[in-house]
Amino acid sequence: MPNDEPRKHPDVRYPSATARRAERRWHRWLHAIAATWRGKRIFIAYRKDDAMGIPGRLADDLVALFGRERVYRDVSTLQGGENFLRRLHTVLADADVVLVLVGKRWLDASAAGSRRLDDPEDVHRGEIAAALTSGCRVIPVLLDGATPLAAAVLPPDIAELAALHAMELSDTRWDYDVSRLAQAIDPHRARRRFMAVGLGAAVVGGAAAAGVWVWRGTPLAKVPGNAGWPPPDSNAATARHEESGGLSLWANGSTLRMRFMDGTGDQRELARRAAKEWSRYANVHFSEVDAGFAEVRIAFKPNGGSWAYIGPAALGVAAAEATMNLGLLEFGAVLHEFGHVLGLIHENQNPGARLPWNRKMVYSQFTRDDADRQIMAPEKVSDYRPYDADSVMMHAFDASFFTDHRARGGAQQLSDSDKAFIAKLYPK
Questions:
Q1: Is residue 140 very low, low, confident or very high in pLDDT (cuts 50, 70, 90)?
Q2: Is residue 222 part of a domain?
Q3: Is the pLDDT of residue 333 over 60?
Q4: Which domain CATH number covers 122?
């Protein structure tokens, strides 16, 4: 049975275990550097009779998020007459992230009366072992209530799988779980879950450098039984979802820790002012910390745009990464991002907005998909406030974006409706 030791040859000098561990760290570093410029490549490993159609469904969603060229499955990537094992090893060597799908029958799947995992020639076991030693990131994905793995019941060459943080994927909360998984894979490149638009008094443009990156897709909230929520060192209160009309909100009365990852004294003070302003009306408090876990982690990268995760979506972000970037240092822009932190959507996507868009102009500035889904389309929320043209959550668009030739947005202070609505969502 294969183990962690390489096969010995009398004429070859083999590296020590310490050297092999150092080599793996080096490979992981190379993978991380390469992935920053070409995007993450994702391989889905699974047993067909255990996953039952889930790999194809998951692959379709990941293709929509990351692009077809970034997502691989063993069946779909094969060409006619191609050697399966050779192709498999080529794809694994090129992968940055390997998702190991684990269903309820994964551990005990058998053939000829014996457990398939105990077969040294088992292809699925081999692909997991190869992934664990390649330097790429391996994420176990538990399907529809499958139990976490234990090292004691796994072959030695894949026992490490049990020590890796697992994520869940359930049919009953599919969009939510896929959104979390996409964030774990690559929070910066999950296409169609984000959007970039300019904010301020100037024209909104799809390629604006000082853009606003905002979490898109199904609103995230705590789902009972979802492993890893909140993070181990987070005392974040339970999030709300159903009773808030589809918004993703923190529990009323929450205290959110806020940590600055960089920034000057003046920049940090601007963020403190914005947080304090919202807290005047919302029963949510911000407590600044210098180290350790924080629900709100703020960076000030000047070329990184202004962006924030909406509500508890921030809890799905790796603890070492920012959950907000403030590249546009106007008070209105900073207020806008803290509005997202509290769960507010863009006012131009308020279901009651019914704005007279100049579609030709909008399509000239954004892709048609982004324009339809992320600029003009109403968010799927209920019981939202009446549209407020003066809201700080309204993006700044110049007159050319509307058929009535009226500019909109760009507020620098909370409107009366902003104050009243946030107080309704988080009553004191």
A1: very high
A2: yes
A3: yes
A4: 3.40.50.10140
Backbone angles phi, psi at 15, to 5 degrees: -70, 155
Residue 107 CB partners (closer than 8 Å, separation 6+): 115, 117, 149, 153
Boundary-marking domain end, from 129, 149, 184: 184
Order the strands of the 296-299 sheet from edge to edge.
196-198, 211-214, 306-308, 324-325, 296-299, 255-260, 285-288
pLDDT tens sequence across 68-80: 778 887 644 556 6
Helix runs in 206-306, H state only: 265-279
Q: How many CA atoms lie within 13 A of 9 on its CB side?
A: 5
Whether residue 172 sits in one domain with residue 252? no
In a domain, 362, yes or no: yes
pLDDT at 226 over 50: no
pLDDT at 244: 53
Same domain, 312 and 376: yes
141 beta partners: 101, 167
Q: Is residue 3 part of a domain?
A: no
Same-domain pairing of 398 and 308: yes
3 state SS of 114:
strand
Q: Could you tell me which of 335, 321, 328, 210 has the C-alpha nearest to residue 271? A: 335
- Arithmetic mean of pLDDT over the chain: 75
> Nearest 10 degrees: CA dihedral of 289, 292, 295, 296?
50
47-58 exposure pattern, b = at least 16 Cβ within 10 A, e = fewer: beebbeebbeeb
Cβ(370)–Cβ(413) under 8 Å?
Answer: no
Identify whether residues 168 and 84 lie together within a single domain. yes
The boundaries of the domain holding residue 99 are: 17-184
| Residue 6 included in any domain | no
Total length of the chain: 428
